[in-house]
Amino acid sequence: MVYPMIFSPAAKSWHPTHLLLLLTAWLGTVGNLPLWIAIWRLPETQGLRGAATFLGFLVVVLGVLALFLSLVLWPRWLKPLGVLFLIMSAASSYFMLTYGVVIDTSMLINAAQTDVREVRDLLSWSMLASVLLGVVLPGYWWWRQPVRKVRLKSLMGRQLGLAMAALLLATLVFWLAFQDMASLMRNHKPLRYMINPLNGLYASAHLVVGQAAQATKPLLPLGEDAQLRKPPATEQEAPLIILVLGETARAANFGLSGYARDTTPALRQLQTQGQLVYFQDVSSCGTSTQASVPCMFSHLGKAQHDRNKERYESLLDVLHRAGLAVLWIDNQSGCKGVCDRVPQVSTQALQVPGLCKEGECLDEVMLKVLPQQLAALDPVRRARGTVVVMHQMGSHGPAYHKRSPQAFKKFTPGCTSSALQTCPAEHIVNTYDNSILYTDHFLASTVGCVSMPGNCGRTASQCVSASMAARCSGSCSGSGPRTGWPGPSCEIPTLKPMRSSHSLMSSLSSEPLVMTDRSALGNLALMASARGRMVLM
Predict the structure, then answer these.
(1) pLDDT band at 455 (very low <50, low <70, confident <90, very high)
(2) Structure pTM?
């Protein structure tokens, strides 16, 4: 059997195996540039022995790639698969070099759920240059090369022989340098997620299989016995509870946490007046919205949630089942399934002058639409009480300069580009701190909304409180070494406004607002005092 050629015969045509080896060399060197830079910077690769370890690792990677390509690249799909691998390697390399991320399943989930606003923020001239140099030029050359016709039997023998030789070479080198390489991989686990394009292929397969398995699982109910412990006697007594979910807010950059800059003047004033409690030691569930948000509303702790394979309802489902009105207002990329069964509103389609521009809105727009959205909820449920979750855009990177209006750009000069690698570290920190300053204003405004008569469509006696939490900011948010920060920070700002100067313990020792089987809700307990204050435990 003879495979047809993709291009017409030429005087100088390539044997398919030779093209395969050429692609192996490109992917193993240029296509894995972030990997080699990361390894070269490690202390284990310094000195003569370190250089030998580095070269050994290179040979192992080339051998593994040659083995993989020998098994999957055959003339009929040689060209399209080759271009696909070039695209995967160039894209992965760009994001690893620019934002310090690794390509794993969670990163692919984030990419799959990226909305138009986030894609627009990622576009830059450096990305265009990366695509040109990593995909367009080599891809064009690759596609134009004529491939020699080779008999199937001969080609199979040659490529399978190459695969066996590559396997033996990689195994031999790894065995000879086993101690150093094993130590390198054990001490620097992210390296295993940096080998292009195998990292993307593995993560894609893991994602597809995992989502397929998850889709077949039933949604397990929680708190089926949930009911209001003491329903309000009148609609005027029904509580309004607002929970604000932050985005990429680092406690280290919060003035209330002791940061050198006063990035939280409005909240500090509330704290001084005894109207706010700040929690100093709180950690997020993860470094992505996809990981953090479902965990925050789960009945499981972080460790259990990370290992969990089942599909459970969320806290919002329990509150809804208890008869409360529940509303999710999103100024982000969605609730990641948490709010699927309750009323929800997205700000993407809003066109509010001064707050929205080109499909993106500042967080204050959620307060702007809150009264109207509250009025649209079921009046029977509102008479029992309302829980509102507002999901901030917050300090979402890399376009930090878009997260605060001009009036809150106190720290200058700032970085006005989404390509953070083009800005000095201090400029990036200035821009990020401005986003925290605006978050401070937004949270204080939210407290004012639930504290002043007539705001939010309720009287003061009906407004309970606002809580705020954020997700962990990892290197994927631009908070790695290139921005001047030491690395991922999972310590997050969490605060609870108080309606009076009563102590926090007064709130924590109060009776539950919603009664249900505590074994079902686990570590989630909604508590409100007789005075109507609210805290999320």
Answers:
(1) low
(2) 0.77
